[in-house]
Design a protein that fits this description.
heterodimer; A: 510 residues; alpha+beta; Rossmann fold; Dna Ligase, domain 1; 5-stranded mixed β-sheet; B: 277 residues; Immunoglobulin-like; C8orf32 fold; 6-stranded antiparallel β-sheet; 5 helices; 45% strand
Chain lengths: 510, 277
């Protein structure tokens, strides 16, 4: 593997211009001060209560994601190119979903194999023919980006279901501003604080046509046992909308209502952080107590908007990912601005043969896995792990893709005994409304805290950083980010229903 | 054949429910071998039935009954004329790509045993898909003993197959799983059966499957009886499994101790057909 590209330092130890101030700042602070600030940061996060649960660990403890006080910096020029690429990518994702749940032209054209779509576990036949407001299936996406050199950004993964992590982007910025106010006065750092306003505008823009001028938006959570519950409460609070669970909503005559102390209130847009299969026990898993019976009927009738739409998981599947460059060309007639990581589809015999021969060099991923689970990082794995993976791969090659082990870029990171380069990725959040695509400059930078590690997932011990998009110092530029008015939203007390809900008994067919 | 059908589903709650919401797939549609001459669907409660169509082409009614609901009866009844087509379905509403019918569902998850069973059974055929499916139908019929107490609506195919008993929907699920494991598109069919033994009053509707045969189209197989679907089979709804074609799926808010009674009556209107009128 080549020497990774460090975002602060040019080989030869010069500092890249974007990092001039950060470098000076690092030189002016001794390690003791950085350690002290790191502890303060941790204390702040603990006080806020920002934690997450790690699945697959017996104790399922609530953890704090490590926060690194050294910011990651992108220039406005770099950001603008990224932002154009992200906009293009999300337009293509939406067009793809509208097509596969509609005329399926991309299958007829022989570009994406039918079985990859129709037998995909995240494809929902129930969505065929459903009219989705303005054909925006993915109002909220998180696109994972990695960088390998000064010029090249790759898309590592599209997250089109219920991407999480935006609360960290916002909290990281708040904590940084409290800890290092001087840094913010010395830099022209594009704001991210307006994300909740942009999200609310996006959600409102997608309200059903029958909704009133000021549509009622709610955030639907699976509840406090979900690993991202903190983010759900945080976002509902910042959006100024009700945080509801399935039991707080009900459907009558294909209209969704929220129970409130003033009686039922019609709901127009549901920002749902609940997976498809739990949404409606009358259509999906009958044993789901988390969803809203009849929700899909209301949705099909066009009386409520779900964000994201149902069935978007098929677009962020790792097998479909490999077709994204073709998908962009097919729907937009444009060359993709952002590249995919070169990927072998193990379902193809030649690719499989290559992958089996080169396992120690490759990263192999399960097509339906996420969060860094079910993944082999060849260079970091012992031979026993590699052989175990080889057996899995041979048994079901179609379940896997493989990629070269990328030399992910590194950023200076405080690691206890000093500042050292650590690998990073970036998850910007892309909002697609009926009127426009909105992206706040920046996103969530995840950092692999262990030396040499490429796994940035928080479930695997990764940390986060504040991400700065630095405006060019030329005064002629307009200030970054569009100021947006904060919509007035009345919060309403709602009473949690204590009524038990039960599935009607089913009759067998004999 | 003229077949008269009545299907009553009755719910009673010890303490009344405050709200009941149900979706019904209880309305047959016509195709080349089936003409629906008369059909009605009613709910005892003062509720508005909203009619729609699902992606599988089924007619779906949704209703919300507001409480207090102590009792609720859903009635579907009417007359259907059928013709013998030896299981071949022509002219049915069918908008979905065939690939959809190869999907696994939680109720039709394949197991190694089921895949082997499918391969071995169908390998003995003369090489045509139709013959292979007839063999599969017979094998499922033989493998699973009919037993109404052994399984529930939530029993997956793998369990029914392993235990070797179940009701018609279990046999249908085993057939679906086996056929899909060898890449034959296959779907679940819910409906009614006019029984030849004169047993008109039945405890439940019937279920079978349809498999896609190249050059022929969809063909109905009834593994519970080990035969192809006949003019005695009245098709109501199709789906990937029971849940996609279930006559009633519902939820109630509040209410305790639900009691469910189902009364299905299927009789022939032809004097020669052994009708009971």
């Amino acid at each position: 593997m080549a020497t990774p590209f460090d975002e602060m330092t040019i080989a030869g130890h010069d500092c890249r211009p974007a990092y001039d101030l950060v470098k000076a700042w690092l030189e002016n602070h001794d390690m003791e001060t950085l350690r002290h600030r790191s502890q303060e940061a941790e204390l702040l996060f603990r006080r806020i209560g920002i934690t997450f649960a790690v699945y697959g660990q017996a104790e399922a403890e609530e953890r704090i994601i490590p926060f690194d006080v050294v910011p990651r910096v992108l220039t406005m020029g770099e950001w603008q190119r990224l932002s154009q690429g992200l906009t293009q990518r999300v337009r293509a994702l939406n067009a793809f979903l509208a097509d596969i749940y509609g005329p399926a032209n991309i299958i007829k054209a022989g570009i994406v194999p039918a079985d990859l779509i129709y037998q995909n576990p995240y494809f929902r036949p129930e969505m065929i023919g459903v009219k989705v407001p303005r054909s925006i299936y993915v109002p909220i996406s998180g696109i994972d980006i990695v960088r390998v050199d000064a010029e090249t950004f790759y898309v590592l993964e599209d997250n089109a279901r219920t991407p999480s992590g935006v609360s960290y982007m916002l909290e990281n910025r708040e904590v940084m501003m409290r800890l290092f106010p001087d840094l913010f006065s010395e830099h022209r750092i594009a704001p991210v604080e307006n994300y909740p306003d942009e999200l609310l505008l996006t959600l409102q823009s997608l309200a059903p046509e029958s909704a009133p001028g000021e549509p009622t938006v709610v955030l639907l959570t699976p509840g406090q046992y979900n690993s991202a519950y903190y983010e759900h409460t945080f976002l509902a609070d910042r959006l100024g909308v009700e945080l509801v669970e399935g039991r707080d909503l009900f459907v009558r005559d294909s209209i969704v209502y929220m129970r409130t102390t003033q009686g039922p209130k019609r709901v127009d847009v549901i920002y749902r952080r609940l997976d498809d299969e739990f949404l409606d026990p009358l259509v999906f898993r009958p044993d789901s107590a988390l969803g809203v019976p009849g929700l899909m009927a209301a949705y099909r009738a066009g009386n409520v908007t779900l964000a994201n739409a149902v069935g978007t998981g098929v677009a962020d599947d790792k097998a479909i990912y490999t077709y994204m460059p073709e998908i962009v060309r097919f729907y937009l007639g444009e060359e993709p601005i952002l590249k995919n990581v070169p990927t072998w589809r193990c379902r193809e015999p030649e690719a499989l043969a290559y992958v089996l021969d080169h396992l120690p060099e490759l990263v192999v991923k399960e097509v339906s896995g996420s969060g860094g689970y079910g993944m082999l990082v060849g260079p970091a794995a012992d031979s026993e792990t590699i052989e175990a993976f080889r057996a899995k791969l041979k048994a079901k090659p179609e379940d896997f893709i493989a990629q070269p082990t990328l030399a992910l870029s590194t950023c200076p990171t405080f690691v206890g005994n000093g500042v050292a380069p650590r690998h990073v990725d970036l998850r910007p959040f892309v909002l697609s409304g009926s009127d426009q695509v909105r992206i706040v400059p920046g996103g969530l930078t995840r950092v692999a805290m262990r030396e040499g590690s490429l796994v940035v997932n928080s479930s695997q011990g990764g940390g986060t950083k504040d991400t700065w998009v630095l405006d060019d110092p030329t005064p002629a530029d307009s200030p970054p980010g569009t100021p947006s008015s904060t919509a007035e939203v009345t919060t309403m007390e709602h009473q949690v229903s204590d009524q038990a809900r039960s599935q009607s008994q089913s009759q067998s067919q004999s | 054949m003229r077949i008269k059908i009545s299907h009553e589903t009755h719910y009673r709650y010890d303490t009344p429910a405050t709200l009941v919401i149900q979706i019904l797939r209880l309305t047959p549609r016509g195709h080349a071998g089936q003409f629906v001459s008369d059909w009605r669907i009613e709910v005892s409660s003062d509720a508005r039935l909203q009619k729609s169509e699902d992606p599988f082409g089924n007619i779906v009614h949704t209703f919300t009954a507001e409480g207090p609901v102590e009792e609720l009866t859903v009635t579907a009844a009417g007359e259907v004329e059928t013709e013998e087509t030896h299981g071949v379905i022509n002219g049915a509403i069918d908008r979905l790509p065939l690939g959809i019918y190869l999907r696994d569902t939680p109720l039709t998850e394949p197991t190694p045993d089921l895949c082997t069973f499918a391969r071995d059974t169908m390998a003995a055929s003369d090489g045509t898909s139709l013959d292979a499916l007839h063999r599969l139908n017979a094998a499922v019929h033989q493998h699973i003993r009919f037993d109404t107490r052994a399984t529930s609506v939530a029993t997956p195919a793998a369990t029914a197959f392993e235990e070797g008993h179940g009701v018609c929907q279990d046999l249908a699920h085993v057939f679906l799983t086996a056929a899909r494991s060898v890449d034959v598109p296959c779907r679940y069919v819910g409906g009614y059966l006019l029984r030849s033994d004169g047993q008109n009053e039945q405890e439940a509707g019937h279920a079978w499957v349809e498999a896609f045969v190249p050059d022929l189209g969809w063909v109905g197989f009834d593994p519970a009886h080990g035969i192809a679907a006949t003019e005695a089979h009245v098709r109501v709804a199709t789906g990937l499994d029971y849940l996609g074609a279930a006559p009633v799926r519902g939820t109630r808010y509040g209410g305790t101790s639900e009691t469910l009674d189902v009364a299905v009556s299927v009789s022939s209107r032809n004097p020669a057909g052994g009708g009971i009128q």
